[in-house]
Amino acid sequence: MKIRTITTGISLSSTKEIEKIRQASEFNQQAKLIIEEQGYEVQTTRIATNSWEEYLYGLSKSEIINQVKIIEEVCQNLNISFFSLGYASQPETIALIPDIIKNTSIFYTSSKIGDTPKESLRDRFSGINFENARESAKVIQRISQESEHGYGNFHFCAWANCKSGIPFFPTAYHEGETSFAIGLELCDLVMQAFSDADDIPDAEEKLKLILDKELTKVEAIAQIISEKFAIEYKGIDTSLAPSLGKEESIAFAYEKIMDGKFGHQGTLAISGMLTRVLKNVSVKICGYSGLMLPVCEDVGLAARANEETYNITNLLSYSAVCGCGLDTVPIPGNITIEKITAILIDMATLAIKLDKPLSARLFPIPGKKAGEMTAFTSPYLVNCRIFNVE
To answer: To pair with 111 at 20 to 30 A between CA atoms, which of 85, 296, 343, 349?
Structure first.
């Protein structure tokens, strides 16, 4: 098990509050050292802010771009490699996201396209912001056209029903006083439990025992850090963050206890079981705490995508019983805004109907069609066949 991220959240009221960024960076480094002293590998430390609409309010487009460039320079001087600007929730600010991504290199951001409506409004509103969904589709398309191989969309997602405190990017945003959360890479523990299991019930029991034991150790360290620095500990996001290692692929782990390949019958049942375990561990959880199925971040998922054992519709159906939505899904470069919008609305509908956090990080690949291969050069992504979108 590895620590994928220590993510510290801060609230900014203006871009002049550089000291908060410096303090968060120093805290991250101290927390990283403490965790590493206990024998864990910490892959990244990250900072997430409140919605950038709040601290860049009233500025023109050129002023916003200038300010984010200043913030990025500060971050780079502090050796910060992962920084989330939070989300945009208005069509006019969502429309600025491609310019932010094009003019920066370490920033991540997102758009809010829906939330579970308040009880008093349930009969009148679906909770989906259709205008935001369409604007987000335009953003996804434009980013793909303005970045090499469409890679810029790695830094953006659209989400529905996601609360603050998620440590994973690009959904991460913050509210309130400074706090931190931990995201893990757990696929090796899933592979371990499933390799020794006879069937799904046996796998569930073995996985829960392993996770309870290992996560309790991490939580104890996090609580020590919280007390030492007087910074609130929000919990562990138990989502199964992916690994590019074959022996830690979530898809190949599934296949240890199913008669067939990932995407075949039984996949939905295992997805539901995994989420049940992840949400019922004996530690404080936060964020998604569900099953991640990021197509281009897992060698097994990519391999099965190449074999067409599952499709986008399957991924959405798995989201109904698990976690995080559609992540790093490659789609044809000539896809229409209408089709991207429809995918986002489907995702938001599930999130609101089931009252769960879901997001969509889609990769239209410029100049390529369904069935062709992506050509990413990023160390964070594996190439695979582009999905067909009917």
So the answer is: 296
Is 231 strand, coil or helix? coil
**Which residues 6+ apart lie within 8 Å of 379 measured at CB?**
none
Burial environment of residue 13 by CB neighbours within 10 A (0 to 12, 13 to 18, 19 or more): exposed
Q: Which residues make beta-bridge pairs with 179?
A: 9, 232
Q: Is the dihedral of CA 181, 229, 50, 140 positive or negative?
A: negative
Cis preceding-peptide flag for 332 (omega within 30 of 0): no
Structure tokens at 384: 């695979």
Residue in this structure with the two tokens 């991460």, named with its chain if needed: 172
Closest CA to 238 of 283, 171, 191: 283
Euclidean distance between CA atoms 3 and 35, whole angstroms: 9
Distance CA 292, CA 183 (A): 12
- Estimate to the nearest angstrom the gap between the alpha carbon of 33 and the chain centroid: 25
Give the tens place of pLDDT for each residue, 265-289.
Answer: 999 999 999 999 999 999 999 998 8
Per-residue tokens: 115: 């939330």
Whether the CB-CB separation of 14 and 54 falls below 8 Å is answered with: no
Contact 315, 264 (CB under 8 A): no
pLDDT tens readout for residues 283-336: 999 998 888 889 999 999 999 999 999 999 999 888 888 777 899 999 999 999
In terms of DSSP H, where are the helices of the chain?
18-37, 52-55, 61-77, 91-94, 97-102, 130-146, 187-195, 200-229, 250-254, 267-278, 299-306, 312-319, 337-353
Query: What is the pTM assigned to this prediction?
Result: 0.93
Q: Looking at residue 119, what is its pLDDT?
A: 54
Q: Computed from CA positions of residues 105, 178, 165, 242, in that sequence, does the dihedral angle turn out positive or negative? A: positive
3-class DSSP state of 258? coil
